[in-house]
Amino acid sequence: MPGRIKALDETVVNKIAAGEIIISPVNALKEMMENSIDANSTNIDVITKDGGIKLLQISDDGSGIDKEDLPILCQRFTTSKLNKFEDLQSINTYGFRGEALASISHIARVTVTTKTKSDNCAWKVSYAEGKMLGEPQPTAGRDGTVILVEDLFYNMPSRLRSLRSGNDEYSKIVDVMGRYAVHSENIGFSCKKLGDSNFTLAIRSHAKQQDRIRIVFGKNVSSNMTEIAMADDINLELKSVKGQVSDLNFVMKKSVTPTFFINNRLVSCDPLRRSIYQVYTNYLPKGSKPFVYLSLLINPKSVDVNVHPTKREVRFLNQDEIIEKITTYLNEELSKLNTSKTFKTGSLLSRQLTRSQPVKSLNSSTIAANNASNASSLNKKIYEHKLVRTDANQRSITTFLKPNVSSSYDNIVKTQVIPSKRKILEESFHDPTIDSNNSEQTNGDDTLTNKILKRSTRSVMEVNEATATDDGSVNISEQTINEVEIRNSVTDSNDKQFNPTVETSKTDVDYEEESITQVDESKPSEYTIIDKKRTDVNLSSIKTLKEMVDNASHMELTNIFANLTYVGLVDPRRRLASIQYDLKLFLVDYGAICYELFYQIGLTDFANFGQINLCTENEESLTIYNILKSFEVLKDNEISIKSIIEQFITMRDMLEEYFSIKIDFIDKDQKDYKTARLASLPLLLKRYTPSLSKLPFFLYRMGTKVNWKSEEECLEGILKQIALLYIPEIITEDVDNNDMQDSTMIDSVKMTAVAKKEKMADLLENVIFPCVKRRFLAPDTLLKDVAEIANLPGLYKVFERC
Ligand code: ADP
Ligand code: MG
């Protein structure tokens, strides 16, 4: 005879229901953590014992629970988040069925300590089987809630037996917390075992997502990621898809379960996981699984979270279409990475390189030797299967292509570079500042430099009284560089009226003769040798500035530049070039590099620059007043064009002695600000003439941004302006169109963007990067302008699959 049907005892029903929701400690943890997040906490701390089985405590600094609500807190279906049935469909918070705490209290001993802002003290009360054990007791406590869960499954021995070891349960807890930590920016998370002094997981509330991923999933994951940001699709009730997924450099045999958040809840969604993995099989080496973190916001009405008691597996409307949309998007993004059309802007290098001691020194003459020794000591052993052509001195294929870019540009900039005599070259190797001259000796010395020094200090002093309006800021940030660029392009046509011809003359003090031989051999050499002894510079301000450069240099980055192999010009509009070092391919911002490089050249060759003579048929066009005229309209500046030019005139001697910036007057009889003419610019690097379209900005900024009152700031300011002038111009496609409209222009200026680009590529390869290799000290700040885009073994893998 079958037994009669009996209604089950209520406590048994509750226990069974609870057991469905809480299968292991991690389920309890997740529910409680979601409550804490709902309560707007900014810090969530978890302590466990025996994987959360013996003890699981979660503390938050959220809203707290009203004392009046405590009696029903652990009853089933009590929730502050749901009033009507309809709410169930549009609820946006994490938990919402009022079941979690009730369930936990049926299978564990629960103690709640909570304090709202308006309470004077905290209240503490324990629960068993959904009911309060006695009245809440006042106690000391901070705003927020602490929920202590002890002896989980004490009344369900079979469930207890089926649990895995404490350590296994603990790692599940850490895993879920880590995923919430990645997702929940602005919330700090910590987790540790009771009695341990170290945290297993610790993330500060203000940590950025990238850092969160690094802390939780490791560097390998965080440094090989690409961002996902999909627009909404109203038809699919899809509000947004955001996240981070592996890029193509990512190699990891151990796969990490994808992290999917749907409406801010960690869920699993197998169809989505399978589709995404499928996309990656085309990109990653066989057997390697990507890391995936995606956060979907879907209209809550179309999400069904009740298909699974723990709310872990979800279903949503238009599921197939949404998944399809995500995979198509992902495929596009990854294929872009694959053909290197887009590049990450963030510096991946910074994660690998730490700040370190400078290797080269501007005050040192043995740069080359330094490089060599550093290269060998830094290079790790290279395994044979990783061998690739990385010898920077090997000829690259482009050296066999005859440069046909002498072109029109060379004609207007009629370069007459003067090769220095070997004697001068040798002297230029010898940097006097490394001599043990101290400042006392310097003062007593009546050398030429000291005379100049004295004169310049005097003129600086004079200026002190003359111009009290100067704001004195010489603060050059990257922004200001961009600013120059932007304004530059605006008035590009403006300056074309100068049509200056440029002659380089005077001593060229570049370090090596080598660059001379690179000058286009098809043309007869137009060098004139001028005997000029290198001027010794003992200015303490220059020494200080050099030291600052030395101290700011980054050893590993400098080493990369010293041993680079130039690969090519990538994007002249964004000034990106790529270089290879060791087995890695880097994308670098050559604008930023040039800025630093020319500043450094300015410091080392200070007072010894060659000279670029500016001359035009129409003398007047080069008067400083004409060049600066267009700025007169800028009403916001207090400094008038007149005072700027007068400032230059006062500093004429200094500008010429130190910077080869020569100012003369077109009218010998009338020497005033209207007749002052810019006659020459400093030549910093043979074969490279700065873009003269920047001239107005150069002069304007020199007049407004340089602090002429303090020697050090003044020299630094001018050197920085010269460096800005020397940054290669941005080449945009429509350059030639603009030019065409300018009828005053001579033909040779009408250079197409293509020709300009070729010229730039040639310059970078044969002039700028060789110089970077020779003498560049890369500062820490440059890390952001260098991004690793591929490593060669990784690329080979891609080819292997093809
Ligand atoms: P639900 O989250 O589905 O509403 P729970 O049983 O998880 O149900 O929680 C019941 C109620 O207890 C919540 O609605 C909330 O008002 C309150 N609560 C629980 N935990 C916290 C907490 N950490 N901070 C503030 N309030 C909480
Ligand atoms: Mg809840």
TrEMBL record:
Gene3D superfamilies from the UniProt entry: 3.30.230.10, Histidine kinase-like ATPase, C-terminal domain
This protein's UniProt keywords: DNA damage, DNA repair, Nucleus
Subcellular location: Nucleus
SMART domains in the cross-refs: DNA_mis_repair
One GO CC annotation: MutLgamma complex
GO molecular function: ATP binding; ATP hydrolysis activity; ATP-dependent DNA damage sensor activity; mismatched DNA binding
InterPro entries for this protein: DNA_mismatch_repair_CS, DNA_mismatch_S5_2-like, HATPase_C_sf, Mlh1_C, MutL/Mlh/PMS, MutL/Mlh/Pms-like, Ribosomal_Su5_D2-typ_SF, Ribsml_uS5_D2-typ_fold_subgr
Every DNA mismatch repair protein S5 domain range: 213-335
Annotated source species: Tetrapisispora phaffii (strain ATCC 24235 / CBS 4417 / NBRC 1672 / NRRL Y-8282 / UCD 70-5) (Yeast)
Organism lineage: Eukaryota, Fungi, Dikarya, Ascomycota, Saccharomycotina
GO BP term, example: meiotic heteroduplex formation
PROSITE patterns recorded: DNA_MISMATCH_REPAIR_1
Region (Disordered): 492-520
Composition bias type Polar residues, residue spans: 492-504
Protein name in UniProt: DNA mismatch repair protein S5 domain-containing protein
Family: Belongs to the DNA mismatch repair MutL/HexB family.
Annotated NCBIfam families: mutl (TIGR00585)
Primary location: nucleus
